[in-house]
Design a protein that fits this description.
Layout: E1 5-6, E2 15-16, H1 17-23, H2 29-42, H3 46-52, H4 58-69, H5 83-86, H6 91-97, E3 99-104, E4 108-113, H7 119-129, E5 132-137, H8 140-152, H9 160-173, H10 178-187, E6 192-195, E7 202-205, E8 208-211, H11 219-229, H12 232-241, E9 243-250, E10 254-263, E11 266-274, H13 281-284, H14 290-294, E12 299-304, H15 311-325, E13 329-334, E14 347-352, H16 360-365, E15 374-377, H17 383-394, E16 398-403, H18 408-417, H19 421-434, E17 435-445, E18 452-460, H20 463-470, H21 475-480, E19 488-489, H22 491-500, H23 506-512, H24 516-525
Parallel strand pairs: 4-5, 12-16, 12-17, 13-14, 13-15, 15-16
Antiparallel strand pairs: 1-2, 3-4, 6-7, 6-11, 7-8, 9-10, 10-11, 17-18, 18-19
Helix pairs in contact: 8-9, 17-19, 18-19, 19-20, 22-23, 22-24, 23-24
């Protein structure tokens, strides 16, 4: 929209349009940065991009440009132009010069222009017509819509309504802007958004995939989104590795966890909106007693469950409890950092894998030099990391981490079996001594379809649980304590309580149950 720079008065420094709009308070710095980033990806005039992104209205921008350039402005969508006026110029000249006659009299012609400072074009037109030209500034997108409308019906004139419909039709054919998609995800109850070539943008809503009612994305669309999301160095890493995880914050929209990966010679993207304010325990449906374990001075707490079922949020909630109620040094290792913790009574040092340290293992190797009281590991994945975590929990640190496992008892067996056979008895003893709690969780769709609610299983390492772990009888925990006890409660009991409270359906409870028959018995008894 006009030139990206505004012509200065004599002696003044040339200033860009975006900078002027910030200076006059019509947009803010973050909005300008987002628009410039968009411009670098798709091209176009900065003014039109700001309008398309919803940062400024057409009328406000035109009023600003009119005052700055000293020429009138026009909103083409509010004008009708007769065939007689349009005959002043051949269609080829309108298209090549990007000018549009909007009124004419005996001595002058009023000419809509994207750049009314283009003196060469003005002089050429005045010479060819033998009339004085009165330039008015118009949006670049409106000029393009007018030319397309004129091409379809060259002898019929054009109306503002027709030009606006053409602009909307063209916009609807384009892939949505990334910021529009992010805004939608941030405002919707969806957990994730998927951008894949060959299908429209899709969301995960209550565990179901739903596709937008629009054209399928192209490989070029997905590549453009990926480049827009990540910095230049991130793109270099991605092209070498084939996939990359990171988190990104858009100040006016929110924070997102992003995974970009290659598939079938194209790029796919998964995005998850992260709540910047960590919800309280009640809102997350976490039990109040979990606070007591978060405030323990020493030991190992493991949060388990399937991918996408809120383990990271539970982890963040526990860190927030410690940060609020203890005065200690907390060091986290995360891939990527999702929730940003502000320092409260504790110091919270958040380290991101790939940026601040090479891997979980490398970060844990050096963590004791940072003198942490609390160690938080985004996920324990390998033998070395488990070994260091157990050692830390055994030497006076509180260690909290997540593990991918189906339930609390399989978590214990997974940890032990990841070690070579000759070490397993020693690890059983260490685990029996240092473990505080295994908290296994799943998010179940609410009956009324307004989100998901947490169902959980707890395994507290009491004296009898310690003995079962030491004696390699972990499998007996589920059979001996099936009906629930102070130290163990199966997820089936939690699901039955949610069903009895009319929060979930029987079908969903059965789907997420560990023991289907036990869940049936509990609900029938109710």
């Amino acid at each position: 929209m006009v030139e990206d720079t505004m012509k200065p008065r004599k002696g003044e420094k040339r200033q860009r349009l975006g900078e002027l709009l910030v200076e006059y308070g019509l947009i803010n710095t973050n909005q300008l940065k987002e628009a410039l980033r968009r411009q670098s990806q798709v091209g176009g005039q900065i003014g039109s991009i700001l309008v398309e992104m919803g940062f400024i209205t057409v009328d406000d921008l035109l009023d600003f440009l009119s005052r700055q350039l000293g020429v009138p402005s026009a909103n083409l969508f509010k004008l009708d132009i007769s065939p007689e006026i349009l005959k002043v110029f051949p269609l080829e000249k309108i298209r090549s010069l990007k000018v549009l006659p909007i009124s004419i009299d005996d001595s002058s012609v009023t000419l809509a222009m994207v750049n009314p400072r283009d003196m060469m074009t003005l002089n050429e037109i005045e010479f060819s017509l033998g009339k004085k030209v009165k330039p008015v500034v118009v949006p670049a997108t409106q000029m393009e819509a007018a030319i397309r409308s004129l091409q379809s019906r060259p002898a019929a004139g054009i109306t503002g309504e027709a030009m606006e419909k053409e602009a909307k039709r063209t916009e609807a054919q384009k892939a949505p802007q990334l910021l529009s998609l992010l805004r939608f995800l941030a405002k919707s109850p969806a957990t994730d958004m998927f951008l894949t070539a060959g299908v429209p943008p899709s969301i995960k809503l209550h565990n179901d995939l739903k596709r937008a009612s629009m054209d399928s994305l192209t490989p070029a669309d997905c590549e453009r989104y990926a480049k827009e999301l990540m910095p230049e160095k991130g793109w270099e890493v991605f092209t070498k590795k084939g996939d990359v995880d990171f988190a990104i914050t858009y100040p006016d929209i929110g924070r997102f966890r992003v995974n970009v990966y290659k598939q079938r010679n194209s790029i796919s993207i998964t995005m998850r909106h992260i709540m910047e304010i960590i919800p309280p325990l009640e809102e997350l449906n976490l039990p109040s007693w979990i606070k007591d374990y978060a405030l323990k001075p020493q030991g190992l707490i493991l949060i388990t469950g399937p991918t996408g079922h809120g383990k990271t949020t539970t982890l963040a909630a526990m860190v927030d409890i410690i940060n609020t109620h203890r005065k200690c040094n907390i060091v986290t290792l995360e891939d990527p950092i999702e929730y940003l913790h502000k320092h409260k009574n504790s110091n919270v040092n958040q380290r991101e894998i790939g940026l601040d340290t090479e891997s979980f293992h490398e970060g844990l190797k050096r963590i004791f030099r940072q003198y942490p009281d609390v160690i938080v590991v985004g996920e324990l994945r390998d033998v070395e990391s488990f070994e260091i975590a157990l050692h830390a929990a055994d030497t006076g640190h509180l260690v909290i981490s997540t593990v991918h496992a189906n339930n609390s008892t399989s978590t214990i067996e997974r940890i032990i079996n990841i070690f070579p056979p000759h070490q397993q008895n020693q690890i059983r003893l260490k685990l029996a001594d240092s473990l505080l709690l295994v908290f296994s969780q799943k998010l179940v769709p609410l009956k009324k379809g307004e989100g998901r609610i947490l169902a959980y299983e707890k395994l507290i390492n009491t004296y009898r649980v310690k003995n079962l772990i030491r004696e390699a009888k972990t499998h007996q925990i589920r059979s001996q304590m099936l009906t629930g006890s102070e130290d163990y409660t199966t997820i089936d009991i939690s699901l039955a309580e949610l069903y009895r409270s009319d929060l979930i359906t029987f079908k969903d409870g059965l789907l997420y149950a560990d023991n289907e028959q036990f869940f049936r018995d509990l609900t029938i008894a109710a």
